[in-house]
Request: fold
Amino acid sequence: MDGSGFETSNAPVNDTGALSFDLNIAIATFRRRFRLFAAVAVVVFAAVVLFTLQQTPKYTAVAQVMLDVRKEQVTDMSAVLSGLPADSSVVDTEVEVLKSRSLASRVVKDLKLEQDPYFNPYLPDAKGASAWLSSIKKAAAPTATTDPIELQRQRERIVDNVLNGLKVRRAGLTYLISVEYTHTDAKRASELANAFANLYLTEQLEAKFDATQKANEWLDTRVSELRGQVQEADAAVQQYKIANNLLSAEGATLTEQEISGLNQQLALSRASQAETDARLNIARQQLARGSTGEDVGESLNSPVVQQLRQQRATKSAQVADLAGRYGERHPDLLKARRELADIDGQIQAEIRRIISNLEAQAQVARQRTGSVASSVSASKGTLAGNNRAAIGLAELERKAQSVKTLYESLLARFKQTTAQDGIEQADARVVSPAKIPTRPSYPKPSLNLALGLVLALGAGVAAVVLAEILMAGLFTEDEVERRLGLPYLGAVPSLGTTVDDSKTLKGLTPPDYLLAKPLSSFAESLRKLRASILFSKVGEPVKVIAVTSSLPGEGKTTTTFSLARTLATSGAKVIVVDCDLRQSAISQFLKEPVPVGLLEVLNGVATLDQALINDESGCHILPLAKSSYTPRDVLGSSAMHRLLQELRNRYEIVLLDTAPLLAIADTRILAPHADAVVMLVRWKKTPVKAVQSALALLQGTRAFIAGVALTQMDLKAQSRYGYGDSYYYYANYRKYYAD
Reply:
């Protein structure tokens, strides 16, 4: 017993979780759904063909624009608005600019497209779906044409229509941009493609013109302002110099020049003083050593002293001569000596005057040096004040210089931008203007048909896949085991599909056909089903078999009675018990109504032997009397249990024809007392969900589910596309049967 609450056989079951792809199954599925596939594909392909034939031819004109990576350098000056850098992101940006609404609006205005019914659906003679929608909106809610919001909406609608025909793309990784425009009029397509390309270049030039003009205006205003600031700054510097006595000449202030001159005078004065003091000191030193002053340097250079010395020499010679001729007391000698002494006195007096003059010169030199030094000190004080004031002057001069520098740079830039006015270049150029196309670009019949064929095949495959996903019934052994998780016992074909000539049947029922054609494929399918059921419980005999289904009309009674005849003809002792208390379907195979049946036996009104009916095949039938009915639960009673035990003892196989599981609860009561339960499912018809719901009802009943068998199978169809079971190869072994 498995975890679901009911037992299953030990036959191998496919893993429901493993969905592996099998090409043969796919081919079989395709064959099974070929009609659906063909119908969907034909409809889709026909729709594509019809759509292609109804399309209005459109022409595509192409203009090529190239972004210039090299520029003409007319002047060696930088532009106000720099050129575009040649990288990938910039090229992609320019592609978007070409597709912008602003550029499209300019095209509309330049070509007056608001007067073209092709683009303006609001014109009286406009055509197309957009015009039809616009007319509906006008009829539903008329709006005055003077309404600015409505006018703006209409303009935007025209721009949208213009953009619908535009396609801008970059040519690979190059700097080329293709501007394509598609229109029903070839000439109009060419005009629009060229208009987009040319207006794109015009916008670039206008942007540069505007930028240059704005720069010139700003620079002119700014230069004028700075000119006044420069004048004010220079005036402030000069006023500050005057106020703080910082006037200068030849790069130095007057105070600095004055100090420089005084320093030179002081140096000269000090040198002169030193010289005078030195002569005076030497003279004093000579006199202090006992000199008469004749060897003093100043006296040696004195013309008076030199003259007196000459006179003395003459007089001295005269004295010597007189002394030699006369005596010491001679008047002439005495006179000469007195004259000599007088000359010596004059010499000494002159030397004293020279020394006194040296002292006076030294005093004058000292006073002059002191006066010059005092002037230098005063000038230095003035210079210190000037230096303190120079700090403020330096700040004013820096401000004035900064303003002047900015003024000069802006003035130079203003001259450059003024010179550039009118020589701006666009960052792109049209390398290939759009020509009038000679062939329509749309529709392309060959491409449309190819795409239509692909679309048709895809739609057909999708329809097949969808049909398989939504498929309610079961077709093959693989589907039974994969979707239900139960063993596949076999299939009972529909009798009409096993023979080529319908006259062969001659009104025979399936059970009668078994006896008439024991070597037919229909009889063989029941023998296969018999074998699968009898050997479903490994190691244990299967005697009581409950045959059921989830819904009515799945061929349960016919299959049960046919299986009973198959078992009987093979020599087995078989009985069929009609346990469908509501329908009593076994009665249709009886030649005449029966007076007593199962209920009478359970109620003790009749014995088992009285109720049994012998079939021509050798099996026994325990039917239900046509008029008998009971609301009581007789199938779960002890009398029913005793009856089943008696049947086990008397027969080899007991077949219980039960009611559908989803309709009646009797089968759930009876199923645990059977050795095996066989679930019949109508081929292709019974929903899998219904079968799963029926199996769920058996949970907890401890019933053993032998497996699932398919009934009413179309053998011819299964042989064509039923890959997954033995009937797929029916054509290979059909000669073994005698239908």
